[in-house]
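Open question from group meeting: does this chain pack into something compact, or does most of it stay loose? Before anyone orders reagents, we agreed to write out a predicted structure and look at it together. Recording both the input and the output here so the notebook holds the full record.
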Amino acid sequence: MKRLCWLLLIFVLAAHWPAQAGETPSAVFAAPSSPPAEVLAETYLYDIMGHLYRWYLDESDIEGLAGIRQFPFWVRRLTVELDPGDRSQLAEIVLPLLNLAVRVKKADYTIEDWGVAVTSKTFRIINVARMSEPPAQAAEAVEVTVELAQMKDYLFATRERAQYPDDVLRAHLRAALLANFQLEPDKANVGGHIVHVAPLSPVANELWAFVEDKKLLVRFAADLDLDNPALWEHQAIAIRTYDLLRQTVVSLHEMPGSNEFLTRDQVGRALFNCILLGRKY
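Structure tokens returned:
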């Protein structure tokens, strides 16, 4: 039976960077059918790039595209063994010029115990992997090519574009923080707890927040869309926390085999999104 993960009791989790570049994805098999039209749309691929631009790409990635005119995406449908009645769709988007593979999912199943239909409006990112070598194009993958200059102009022009949680979602997030961090409600409005919330992503069911006075980075993630009331009614959301003073390193090679740490680059990107692009509450 398909279940969502319950809201985790908040403590410093031994957690990895979500959709970590460099992760090894779980085994999947290429489906024989064509990719869903939605993930082939240029506007959707631009949104994928926009998410990567904010959370994954660095200076060397952009510099490595110098002189390139056409930017290819290799898109294929994926299939995995799903529970009975689970109609979720998965796809993979490979960016060969960046050695990146993005796995996306469009959830469509029911949690019978709750009587809740779990659906997502669009395909959402569930994993980003950076490959050590240039990949080979899968035989069943469809290539979508865009003008690199046009896409770079779009990314630059929209680099400050942001959608923030509405009042309802913000109230749910505040309640989750208060309940799980043992924050003091009476401090919420007097500056005792300063929380910076990153903009929402159009292609990922996740939300990042930085609790400034506790120096904690927090990630909320779920299969359900974050604005779905059932998500909060059943506490069907995973929360991961990072104590930035204790869990920040220069390189993950400093702690081989451990998934408890973030690099300074990862922390810098998160703080950029939370503090500079985000809103303070």
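Observations to bring back to the group:
The first helix runs from residue 37 to 40.
Confidence is low (pLDDT under 50) at residues 1-27.
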